[in-house]
Amino acid sequence: MANEYLHAAFRTSAEARVALNRLGQDGVAPEHVEVRSSVPLEHDVHPVGAKLRSKIPWTSLAGAALGGTAFFMMVKLTSEAYPLPTGGQPIVALPPAGVITFEGVAIGAVLMTVATVLIECGLPAFRKKPGPLDHHIALDHVLVSVKQDEGASTAWTAQAIETARG
Amino acid sequence: MAGPAASVHEEALLKPLVGFRPKLFLGSLLTGGLVGLLFYAWGFQIVNDIGVAGITRPVFWGFYIVNFVFWIGISHAGTLISAILRVTQAEWRRPVTRCAEAITTFALMIGGLFPLIHLGRPWIFWYMVPIPTDRGIWPNFRSPLMWDIMAITTYLIGSVMYLLLPMIPDFAIIRDRMMRESPKSLKTLFFRVAALGWRGTPQQWFSLEAGIKTMAVVIIPVAVSVHTIVSWDFAMAIQPMWHSTIFGPYFVVGAIYSGVAVLMLAMYLLRRGLHIEQYLNDKVFNNLGLMFLAFAMLWSYFTFAEHLTVWYGNEHSERIVFDARIDGRFSGFFWTMIVVNTVIPFLVLPWRKGRSPLGTAIVGFGVLIGMWIERYLIVVGTLSFPRLTYTEGFYSPTWVEVGILIGSVGLFGFLYFTFIQLAPIVSLWEVREGEHIKNRPAPHGASPALNPAEKEA
Question: What are the φ/ψ torsions at residue A147 (nearest 5 degrees)?
Fold first, then answer.
């Protein structure tokens, strides 16, 4: 029973919001409520008390710093390991090294951003089995799932299912 | 019944993904034939050596480098434009971003092929890769060609990620739909894998949107750097009409100009072929047409400035190249370029009727030809007249080079046709999001004006 969910599909985000408010009033913990949609409604429709967090700006910056350092070191160490004749000019020329470092900054930021998105989204997640109402998401409905043993109110259940029936 | 934004028009986008479309199949077949020409010509060159190409002293950079610069320029259609529109939160961008980003990815792949083709012996390409070897040969990081590799690789990786990340929720929409209709089919399996198990929870959306926004900010300077660095392949050399300080911005503007041109043409063909007028509507063409006009003005201004300073400076070797363009060997190319890149856009695009789908597509086709000519003039026009005049020579492409050029166009079409059959060419979730935003009730306690779909519910 503990892992069984009660699912309800709502045609509009407004209806889903009403249901989520009712769940919040009933004291259902946000971690026991899952909202799913085919569009980003996270600022509008979410379980009461749920907090959304992302480390993306910081991990992207870290990736940029890492990428830039790695690429600069590649240029520096390579140039020093196999010095080419430069006619008295510095072995490590800073302007060209700057160009390469810039690309390193960008590629580091991009790769770290993508990695962070995948980790925060828990992707890939092939083992999750599709739910009975998943096709509603494809129809732009909002799907709300509640853990059954968390005692969602009867009124909410009735309203949710009735709305899902349309 | 579908939700407020999942309209019946989505069916037109999903048709190529779920069923057999004879037109798309025919298109794939035709362009596939051209891809065959590309690899036949390239194979012929590998077997018979680079001498089968027309490049010879002093024109050592011919069609291949022209095509390289041309395709890298085309790649500025998508990711850069899409990123700019995302950062500025232009609402009308929603149907445009996906087809534009796909152009970038495929054009970059094709552009990246040309240095390999130009090498003659493509298997020695790895000499450019900075890995320690007992040869004692390491890449020279002072060379702009090395910067090219770094910049193009970065832009390609960034563009592929920028294309794929927003596609995950769309794959999930199709997966959820197909799991009900045909759970055992191969296509369903493909969409299950491609969706990566996406569920569409608030946290997933929050992270994805943060990622897309960050990537949009990162990708803009990368795109600018790519074509700037391509321009430095020329500008760093002390060759007549190459050694110019404005070559960087001139190339970037030209790249975006040719990118918008191919985008206009692609959007027109998609609209006609897939019947998605609801998404790629007149407003989108009008707005992009205005952007097109702005870049026509910028490109014309840069071209004028570049040629005026050379003419006024009257430096001998530069003047030879300049005269060949204005009334010499290359004048036919030059004036054709001016007509299709400046005159026609200025005559058509300022008018609302000119910014129609057909009008912008015709102008776009012309600009594509004009921008290819511009690259030809820059590469071949200068190399034909080096500073040491006794090395003057005439370049004439062979069937191998022409075949590879035509084949590269075919490869682009083939990749695009394949893409259309694997992913929705208009981002479903972004368009739906736009509808949600449009239908959102007014804030600050105003009466919640339900949209028609909600009223029905």
Answer: -65, 130
Specify if B2 maps to a domain.
Answer: no
User: CB distance A14–B450 less than 8 Å?
Assistant: yes
ipTM of this complex prediction, to 2 decimal places: 0.88
Contact B197 A125 (CB under 8 A): yes
**Whether pLDDT at A15 is above 90:** no
- Chain-chain contact of A11 with B208 (C-beta, under 8 angstroms): no
B154 and chain A in contact, CB less than 8 A = yes
CA proximity to B379, closest of B148, B118, B71, B69: B69
Contacts of A81 in chain B (CB under 8 A): 138
Between B389 and B100, residue with greater pLDDT:
B100
Looking at the complex, does the CB of residue B297 fall below 8 Å from at least one CB of chain A? no
Compute, in degrees rounded to 10, the torsion defined by CA atoms A15, A16, A21, A25.
Answer: 100
- 3-state DSSP call for residue B377? helix
B157 located within any domain = yes
Measured in angstroms, the CA of A69 and the nearest CA of chain B are apart by: 15
Centre a 10 Å sphere on the Cβ of residue B45 and count the other Cβ atoms it contains: 22
Res. B185 pLDDT band, cuts 50 70 90 = confident
Tell me the C-alpha distance between A24 and A60, whole Å: 34
Tell me, what's the pLDDT at B134?
A: 62
**CA A15/CA A8 separation, integer angstroms:** 11
Angle at B160 between CA B96 and CA B107, to 5 degrees: 70
Contact (CB, 8 A) for B215 and A113: yes
Residue B446 forms part of a structural domain:
no
Question: Considering the domain boundaries, does residue B8 fall inside one?
Answer: no
Domain with B53 in it? 18-126+138-432
Number of H helices, E strands in chain B: 19, 0
| Distance in angstroms (rounded) separating the CA atoms of residues B122 and B115 | 9
- At B255, list the tokens: 């790249």
CATH number at residue B253: 1.20.1630.10
